[in-house]
Each structure stands twice: as structure tokens, then as C-alpha cells.
Amino acid sequence: MDRETFQFIVSLDTVSSDFEKDIIGKYGIWLLKLFYYGSDVTINRIHLNYKLISEYIEFYNKHLSKFDVKDIFQYKNIEFFLYDVENVINNTKYKVDSKDYTKFYEDGEWLIIIPHTEEASNKYGSNTRWCTAAKNNNKFKDYNPKESGWPLYYRINKITGKKYSFHAGDGFRNQIDDSINYIPGLPKKITIKYFKLRLINGPGFKQYEVLSLPEDLKFLYLHIKLKFMHLDKYDVELIPDHLKINFIKIIISQKTELPRGLYDYAPFHLKMRYVEMCISNDLWLYNNELSIAPLDLKIKYIQNMKSAGNHYKQYLTLLPDEINNKLKL
């Protein structure tokens, strides 16, 4: 570490250090250790947030009684320190009761909450550009479940301080309110809930959104959509070839129609099972699909289509003329 860097780090401690008097206090020593042993992320964080770090050290020292961690050396990285100080500041600034939010999920790295009041939204959405945490013209009420039909979630990384919001009607948002397609590392149960809300209640997903998902989330998306809705031809493109037969079996067991393009991947015995299932359940079949059925099943299917008032004449080419004449189809 060169002298200039050394002096810069120590200068961030305005509480216990004085470089001009050759005094290096505990906060200066702590910062030097973090910088010397820290990762590139920690070093960059110190450089980018040096003013905030200096202010937070002053706040920590002044309000030490409000912190669970009272020994600065217990903070092994700068991110945990910044996160803790921000929490104490927000707890002081915003009067939020436990009934004002729901703690949906928490582990050593992530906290996910559902704010129920504007005050809670402002607290957990602080240092973002979200309209739901804005000081002026706050839009939290528009995103309240009573108004929108869906809860608003805030996901906070307790290590990096990064924040994300997600709402079924508005998608994922990062801290500066840019729309993003997914939140990295989101717990599976949250992702499932989000996919279900957006698929069932709208607005659904555009193709480019699904294509941009990691492979494991694409697969999860397909399974959830298959459970509640029909797959379409664009979804078929997302299914790896070696898994297409598995999806065909699932769709047959659910007694729903195969999307265009998936039928061709089925071996003959599965095609036959699918056609028989469609005939039994009066589901739509294409000519090439019905063509493999035995004659008696073809006749049964065409008669059922006719009785139900559905289009059926396109299938007549699959029957011998004498059958058509005899049945007067």
C-alpha cells in the first residue's frame, strides 16, 4: 500500500485518527485492515463511498448504544457495516411497527419484505429511485394489494446493500428503477410465486423476457406455465430436445393439447396415445395427427366435431369416399 492510499484510508476516520499528528485510531486501523485484506469489491466500495463511510463512522460512534455490534472490528467487510448503519438511521428516521410490513424471507445474505404502509415502503426502499419510496408524489398506494391485486416485494442484499423490487404487474426493478428480467439469486419459492402471479393474472411474459432468463429459470417458467396454462410454439423452442418427450408425457397426462411443433418429437406410440386422448376428450387435432388413428376413431372424432357444431369438413379427406357417402358427412 503506497503512502497516498494509506493517507486516504486513514483520513476517512475523522473520529479517532489524525494523520497530521501521526495518530491512527481504531476506526483507521479497521479501515486499513478491510482495505488490505479485502476483495476488489470491498476496495472499490471504499473508493466509491468514501464520503458516506466517513459519515457513517461518525454516526456509528455517536449512536453506538443503538447497534447490536459494538466492536467495529467485528465487521469483517464494509458492506455489513454500511447495511447496519443504514438500518439504524432508518429506524430512527421512520417510525415503523412490525404490523407495517411482513418479513417474507430472510437468511444471512438476503431480506425480503412486503411493505404495508408508505412509511415502511420509505424505510426499506430508502436510497432508491422507486416511486413507491419517493419523498414527493409517492405512489405506494397504487401498488398496495388493495389497489393492484398483488403485493409489492422489496429484496435487500444485507452484504452489498443492493435493493430490488418486484411486483406482478410491474416486473423486477433494480435500485435505480430500471426494469430487469429477473433478480439474481432470488429464492425459488419467490420466483415460482412471481411467475404464477404474472402468468395467471397478467400481464404475462414477452418472448424476449423469457429468452433472457438463465436456463434453470426458463425450465422453471415452462413447468409453471404448463401447470396453469397451455404452452405455445415459442415455448417449444425453449425446451431442450432431450426433454421434449418428458413434456409431451406431462401434457398428455394433463389432457391438454400439444403446442405446434412438439408433436413431431413424439415417438409413434406417444403420438397414438395423444391422438386417442384428444379423441376421448374432444380436443382439437390437426389432419396429420388424426391421420394415424384407426378408422373407427377417425369416424368417432369427426362425428363428435360435427355434433358439437365445430369445423369438421377438413378431416373428410382422411376417410374413404364410400365411408363419407355412407355416413353422409
What does this structure look like?
The chain has helices at 3-11, 26-37, 40-48, 50-62, 78-93, 118-124, 140-143, 145-148, 188-201, 207-211, 215-228, 233-236, 241-253, 268-280, 287-290, 295-307, 321-327; strands spanning 101-106, 110-115, 152-157, 163-167, 171-173, 179-180. The chain is an alpha+beta fold and 329 residues long. Among the domains are: 3-73, no CATH class; 238-329, no CATH class. A six-stranded antiparallel β-sheet has the order 1-2-3-4-5-6, covered by helices on one side. Helix 1 crosses helix 2 (26-37) and helix 9 packs across helix 11 (215-228). The chain is elongated, with a radius of gyration of 30 Å. The N and C termini lie far apart (91 Å). The model has no long low-confidence stretch (mean pLDDT 87).
Short descriptors:
alpha+beta; elongated; six-stranded antiparallel β-sheet; 49% helix; 17 helices; 329 residues
State the total count of DSSP E strands: 6
- State the helicity in percent bands: 40-55%
H/E element sequence? HHHHHEEHHHEEEEHHHHHHHHH
Report the C-alpha radius of gyration, rounded: 30 Å
* Percent of residues in β-strands: 5-15%
The oligomeric state of the chains shown is single chain
Distance between the termini: 91 Å
Please identify the structural class as seen in this structure: alpha+beta
Strand order of the largest sheet: 1-2-3-4-5-6
Number of helices: 17
Q: Tell me about the biggest sheet?
A: 6 strands, antiparallel
Mean pLDDT: 87
Low-confidence stretches: none
Shape: elongated
